[in-house]
């Protein structure tokens, strides 16, 4: 089942529960560890924020991928790639009439990152916990 939602979903409070090996920081209190969503180093240079629509939900969970800080990646926004969470060029298929384009991104440090597979994140291409919203969990079986 393929469902497209708009970007104005609220980012859930569960964002703090995400774990990123490259950005995890400890405050000294084991129960108060604060996690942050990594930053796309190409966010200002590419199209990450120019496309208002979100793609089709591919999965209701993020996918952990090992990324190299020296490489540029393309994250699938349309949700139709067969190489999720990365783009395989499926958006170019003229019969599918897909207007969305992949999000080019780079990471600050080499390491493991949780990439969004629900395609509804507000921090493209990284998972920010948006997939935990009931609308998304209900949309994917
Ligand atoms: S998979 Fe987590 S926000 Fe999309």
UniProtKB/TrEMBL annotation:
Keywords: 2Fe-2S, Iron, Iron-sulfur, Metal-binding. It comes from the Eukaryota. Its cofactor is [2Fe-2S] cluster. GO terms for cellular component: mitochondrion. SMART domains: ZnF_CDGSH (SM00704). Signal peptide: none annotated. Pfam families: zf-CDGSH (PF09360). The keyword Metal-binding applies. Residues 60-97, 100-137 form the Iron-binding zinc finger CDGSH type domain. InterPro entries: CISD (IPR052950), FeS-contain_CDGSH-typ (IPR018967), MitoNEET_CISD (IPR042216). GO terms for molecular function: 2 iron, 2 sulfur cluster binding; metal ion binding. This is CDGSH iron-sulfur domain-containing protein 3, mitochondrial isoform X1. It comes from Drosophila albomicans (Fruit fly).
């Amino acid at each position: 089942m393929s469902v497209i939602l708009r970007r104005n979903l609220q980012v859930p409070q569960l964002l703090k529960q995400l774990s990123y090996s490259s950005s995890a920081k400890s405050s000294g209190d084991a129960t108060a560890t604060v996690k942050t969503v990594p930053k796309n180093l190409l966010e200002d240079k590419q199209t990450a924020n120019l496309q208002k629509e979100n793609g089709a939900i591919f999965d209701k969970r993020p996918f952990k991928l090992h990324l190299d800080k020296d490489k540029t990646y393309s994250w699938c926004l349309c949700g139709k790639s067969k190489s999720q969470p990365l783009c395989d060029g499926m958006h170019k298929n003229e019969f599918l009439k897909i207007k969305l384009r992949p999000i080019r991104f780079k990471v600050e440090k080499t390491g493991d990152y949780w990439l969004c597979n629900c395609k509804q994140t507000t921090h493209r291409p990284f998972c920010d916990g948006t997939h935990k919203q009931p609308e998304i969990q209900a949309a994917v079986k």
